[in-house]
Records
---
Amino acid sequence: MALRFGKKKYSSVQVRKRDVPDGLWEKCPGCGEILYAKQLEESLQVCSKCTHHFTLGRQKRIEMFADEGSFVEWDAELTSADPLGFTGKDSYIAKLEANQKKTGFKDAVTCGAAKLSGRDIGLGVMDFSFLGASMGSVVGEKITRLIERCTAEKRPCILVCASGGARMYEGLYSLMQMAKTSAALARHAKAGLPYIPVLTNPTMAGVMASFATLGDVIIAEPGALIGFAGPRVIKETTQQDLPEGFQRAEFLEKHGLIDMVIPRSQLKERVALILDYMAGA
């Protein structure tokens, strides 16, 4: 049946839209393209149109760098305590439990032994989905143990960095991790062993100001946000207008803070090549 008003016809029949499963499509924040989730997964979460690099989960990162079946996790049992008894809208313990349930991991970094193109390495991967990959005492301890074990076993160390900064729920305990990880890296360098950080989006604040930028070769993914403070804070502090994109990987490469910007699909191959070069192969 149709209702007629003037020259237009308006149907009274309601057409039911087909149900579309959630998670089938993703909208690219870089170009606005609607991407098929399956194809996006196959391309390592990189937009096929504008090459925007989406966040990649820690398990996929491990699979991307480690030869198949070679990764063995270290210090998986470490979990954060609540040294300050922090309470706010939610307690720190409640936030930890919620993030552990959400991610299936005990904290924001996974470390272990692996092979990269047949070479023994130590591998650490930070996960922004766990409390913004904030650097608490467990994150600092696991990364320090990773570096120290790599030094003892004469392994190169690869660390995939992502973080919003220090973990405010642990106060000074979190800030201490900057010095602890940096000291471990100094001993690793003294032993003549390679350390390569891979900076992903975002790598900020205390992580950027410590182990993320102490590498022999510092690599970043395209478009990664890298810096100490946010642009608003910097502008208010310096009272100056800031260059466009001054905290993005490409700008920082151009000005010498990082050494290479490498697309995700080429990372494993390029890191293996760098390690071969550093070993004199």
---
Amino acid sequence: MRLTRTDRQILAIAIPSVVSNITVPLLGMCDLAIAGHIGDATLVAAVSVGATLFNVLYWLFGFLRMGTGGLTSQACGKDDKTGSLSVLARALLVAAAISAVVVAAHPWLLDFAFGHVVVTEADVERLSRTYLSICIWGAPAVMMQYCFTGWFIGMQNSRIPMVVSILQNIVNIGASLSFVLFLDMTIDGIALGTLVAQWSALIASAVAWQVRYGGLLRFASRVRVLELRPMLAFLDLNKDIFLRTLCLVAVTLFFTSSGAAQGDMTVAANALLMQFFTIFSYVMDGFAYAAEALTGKCVGARDRRSLSATVRRVIVWGVWSVAVFTVAYVVAGRPFVRLLTSDGGLVEFAMGYYPWVLLLPVAGFLAFVWDGVYIGATATRRMLLAMVVATAAFFACHHFLFPLWGNHALWLSFIVYLAARGAVQTLLFTGMMRTVMRREG
């Protein structure tokens, strides 16, 4: 297949982004592996609980990356250097403010989490609190790192985030192992290693920014970080993304809790099968980032022709991804499940629901592609509308069909949810782009 210029632009952003995405779970896996080799199952459980709670917390603030990326890509398309610098400055200010509140409120957040979100044994809770009380000091680094990542992607540069992600994992492994092996620390050493890695990533991003984009500082005198109208626009944009993320978290948590209510075997099978969606999402997120960066650049430059070409080619790459993943899942489904568990009974039970896995790529790819396009166009209100409709469809489908089909209904509801997100955004696309182009003009 001959690659067009647009294809090369897409892949230049998507491939490093996929590599970055794949490194994300390695942070949690590293901490779990070190805890596991200490030889205490309670430590493993505590790290797992702590990592899960942090993932949910940081997930909610992912709007810092997405909102920053969309606005930066549009400023890049306009060749507005002052504007791109202003976006980063505002994003970092908001991230610093939010993280300060989170750090200050973390004792109450921990009480709420262990009182209403997670129910676990006393020893696990005690160790988890130790882990979380140390890692919480990385909140400013994580949230400001989101801003840098979104900004770099908006500037059509996904290689710096890739390098920083790899560096973060190397530091995390080295620091955590050093604290545990040489200083005889346990969960506090694991948490401290993660904390060091998080701040190292932020420092690396700041240094990379200075080296690659430090020349923008000559426009710093024109930046008005606290100017009311742009700040309110930034907050309004991120509010839509935050509410969208709340819907996404609600569906994800309900999927887990519904499986858990059906028994240990069902929740375990669902967790195994959901790994197929997670792997697919790592790849599709890379193309979503490419769509975000290139769409924003085209909107900023008011280049309709390039925008149309970008959307078409990203969808084509999505279709190719669907084909590759579907074939791989048909061929390697059972071996992969066996790789995840040695329990033969669980493998057979999970394979009873496996046909739903084969529908995940075709049902979900448009949702990823359109999310990137809508974020790049900063049309987040319509993206939120699509998510609300899809979430309502998920819960309605589950409510009416679960009494008849049980866990099959849960999987069908998830498929409907993914497909509805893509379908609604497809229907809204033409009107959205007319509005965006008129606004930019």
---
Amino acid sequence: MTKKPVTLTFKVDPALAEILRQVPNRSEFVRAAVLSALESTCPLCKGTGILSPRQRDHWAEFARNHAMAECGDCHEFHLVCHAGEAPGCGRGLEAGRPEEGEP
């Protein structure tokens, strides 16, 4: 059984509406943009940009042994684990690749 597409509407400001009118296939463009955004959503806040009080508590605990660092190769920020007792945690993350002799 083939499922029918669902029409979804949303409001935009006039400037964005004018820009979108210039896009040849707006529906495909919007679908691709939404899927791309969903693939890049923060796993903790789910894209809201806001943590609940309990999430903040979990983050504070996590942050005790983790830090943000800039990759020396691509200059993107990533998490680095400083918990030496955790198996495999943090090995080679500063350089963005495993240490020598590791897979």
